[in-house]
Amino acid sequence: MKGGWFKVYAIGYLVFLYAPIILLPMFAFNDATIIAFPLTGFSTRWFEEMLDKPALTIAVKNSLFIAVTASILSTTLGIFAARASTRYQFPMKAGLMGLIMLPLVLPEIIVAVSLLVVLLGLGVSLSLWTVILGHVLICTPFCIAILSSAFQSLDQSLEEAAYDLGETAASTFRLIILPLVMPGIISSLLISFTISLDEFIIAFFLAGTEPTLPVYIFSQFRFPQAVPVIMALGTVLVVLSIVLLTIAEYFRRRGIAKSGGKDTGGFL
């Protein structure tokens, strides 16, 4: 009986979680302007209108630039932090790593307002780069969590064998360690890219006059006639996010299998 109740709970939870996402493509391909049942007919005109909006094109370019830059910077910082935390012992290690991982549990509104106050106090103009700074701050802990798992699963005997054969620490890291953790690096890049692309609160506070895609979507909900186009855009974003997360999970599992580690759970 307990198993039966658990199945009911699991099904109910999945319906509650994914039903709104299922409604996106339904209304995106609906011919009516009003988002309501019953559906009036199949149409792709909202996707066509989506491609004809210059403001949307600018917002997409801004978001892609921010997401690519933030993912590269976050993953680079994550490599250094994960390597240091899994390989070396140093004073106040636990405290320092806890501070680095703190954005995982802090409300984003607090992070955004704090960054806004600090940046304005320093006289820094709000731009795409200030958004990148905020996204690096929140993406780096995710990268560290992914990369720490990759570094922990490495066989240290491979590193020691490289030293015995005359390799330096730098060449060992470049030739031995990085190739082994490359699936984890790719997974980290994809996850941080997805987080940055979908992030709204920090972009809303720090973008200034240069809108990102989530900020553009939020602004368009003031106009009822623009809602079906936003539904079409949301459908594209959901599909893109699922594809990126699937690829990231594939590389994460490939990295664990390559290093001979044990899979303790993942994104999917």
Structure description:
- The structure is a single chain.
- This protein has 268 residues and is mostly helical.
- The protein has one domain (53-259): MetI-like fold (Orthogonal Bundle).
- Helices cover 75% and strands 0% of the residues.
- It has eleven helices and no strands.
- α6 (128-152) packs across α8 (169-198).
- The protein is globular, with a radius of gyration of 22 Å.
Task: Draw up the topology in text.
Elements: H1 2-28, H2 45-50, H3 54-87, H4 93-101, H5 108-121, H6 128-152, H7 156-164, H8 169-198, H9 201-206, H10 213-220, H11 227-259
CATH architecture type: Orthogonal Bundle
Characterize the biggest β-sheet.
none
Percent in helix: over 70%
Structural class: mainly alpha
CATH homologous superfamily label:
MetI-like
Gyration radius, in Å: 22 Å
The number of helical segments is: 11
**Do you know the CATH topology?**
MetI-like fold
Low-confidence stretches: none
Secondary-structure element string = HHHHHHHHHHH
What top-tier CATH class fits best? Mainly Alpha
Mean pLDDT: 81
β-strand percent reads: under 5%
Oligomer: single chain
Distinctive features:
MetI-like fold; mainly alpha; 268 residues; 75% helix; globular
